[in-house]
Design a protein that fits this description.
The protein is α/β, with parallel strands linked by helices and 374 residues long. The chain is built from 12 helices and 15 strands. The protein folds into 2 domains: 5-30 and 288-373, Alpha-Beta Complex (Aspartate Aminotransferase, domain 1), CATH 3.90.1150.10; 41-281, Aspartate Aminotransferase, domain 2, CATH 3.40.640.10. Helix 2 packs antiparallel against helix 8. Keywords: Aminotransferase, Pyridoxal phosphate, Transferase.
């Protein structure tokens, strides 16, 4: 896109020429409250003026970490009561994989095809097809894949499986929601075999799908939950969350079984705390997600649009092919609207605006997309 950004305000980005762009992707789902939200900015400035890096291994008690972990666990089922902060989503995946191996004593993983959990070596090992990873092989062995929403793959979860790792809603496929009965069957199969269930809500969390966490809509609770992107409110922050009994296995044999220098940085945790606190104290932000989703779906009707898949304020607008996607993105950009495509689906436009987007802004954005389509 080659946009040179000079500023951001709410749902808008501003370039160096002063042109305003309505941001329909929010930094790939990061800016859940929009750009430069006052509560987040104030929290970052206050914490930066208090102290920044110290030690995050636990030798020091850092109130931004403690307050964020406390508020986060208060929103989760009681069995998810222990938080390990990371810098990013891919690091949350890596930590969760180590934790699953350590707790179960097993080394194999089951992941879904067309899933994306990050680009570091462990996370990239989970990816299939291997278009984006082949150049870096060999990666981790012992990875088996199943098809999302396909009951036939459940028998690949065995007594050798350390964990099944799934996105609660598949993102880079171009938005695929699970059948509740399938996700519940995965949960049962994990319980039968002693495997852990890891749910990746790096993109799906923080109200994006209409509840604070997407798994709340499907009648399952993971053993390990992955968070990042919107979790940090625009600052680099991720986490993996598990029950204390599981997480404690990282503390001995060896001691410091998983460590980080910057994970849970006080300034990032302050931003995350302000973001989560805003979502909790202003429930209308998440409560309005489904209505806004419905408005998008009503307005995005055009002969060139083949399908609209959605999970709250997160949708994929399918067109014919990548060339049509490219010129539609360019047409939107020219008119002051930012959109994008998906890693494993180059036929669909990505829509994931800040949750603060208004109905009037949705109407305008949809009008621009339809105009760009011709």
């Amino acid at each position: 896109m080659a946009l040179e950004i000079a500023g951001g305000e709410g749902v808008y980005l501003i370039d160096t020429a002063g042109k305003r762009y309505l941001d329909l992707i929010a930094g790939i789902g990061v800016s859940a409250l929009g750009h430069n939200h006052p509560a987040v900015v104030e929290a970052v400035q206050r914490q930066a003026a208090t102290y920044m890096h110290t030690l995050v291994y636990g030798e020091f008690i850092l109130s931004p970490q403690v307050e964020l972990a406390t508020l986060l666990c208060a929103q989760l089922p009681p069995e998810l009561d222990n938080v390990y902060f990371t810098n990013s989503g891919t690091e949350a995946t890596e930590g969760a994989m180590k934790l699953a191996k350590r707790y179960t004593g097993r080394a194999e993983f089951v992941a879904a095809t067309h899933a994306y959990h990050g680009s570091t070596q462990g996370a990239a090992s989970l990816m299939w097809p291997k278009d984006f990873t082949q150049a870096f092989h060999p990666l981790l062995p012992g990875i088996t894949h199943l098809e999302f929403n396909d009951d036939a793959g459940l028998d690949r979860i065995t007594e050798h499986t350390a964990a099944v790792i799934l996105e609660t809603v598949q993102a880079e496929w171009g938005l695929r929601t699970p059948r509740p009965e399938w996700l519940q069957a995965v949960r049962r199969r994990c319980d039968e075999t002693g495997a852990l269930l890891i749910l990746d809500e790096i993109q799906a969390g923080m109200g994006r799908t209409g509840t604070l966490f997407a798994f709340e809509q499907y009648g399952v609770v993971p053993d390990i939950l992955l968070l990042a992107k919107g979790f940090g409110g625009g600052m680099p922050l991720g986490a993996f969350v598990a029950r204390r009994e599981v997480m404690q296995t990282l503390t001995a044999n060896p001691v410091l079984g998983h460590i980080t220098t910057f994970g849970g940085h006080p300034v990032s945790c302050a931003a995350g705390l302000a973001t989560l606190r805003t979502l909790v104290e202003r429930p209308e932000l998440i409560a309005s997600v489904k209505e806004k989703e419905a408005l998008f779906r009503r307005r995005l009707v055009h002969p060139r649009i083949r399908d609209v898949r959605s999970a709250g304020l997160w949708m994929a607008v399918e067109l014919a092919d990548f060339s049509e996607i490219q010129w539609t993105i360019a047409g939107c950009l020219e008119r002051g609207l930012v959109t994008d495509w998906f890693l494993f689906n180059e036929r669909s436009l990505r829509i994931a605006p800040p949750l603060t987007i208004s109905e009037e802004e949705i109407e305008w954005a949809c009008g621009v997309i339809l105009e760009a389509l011709g």
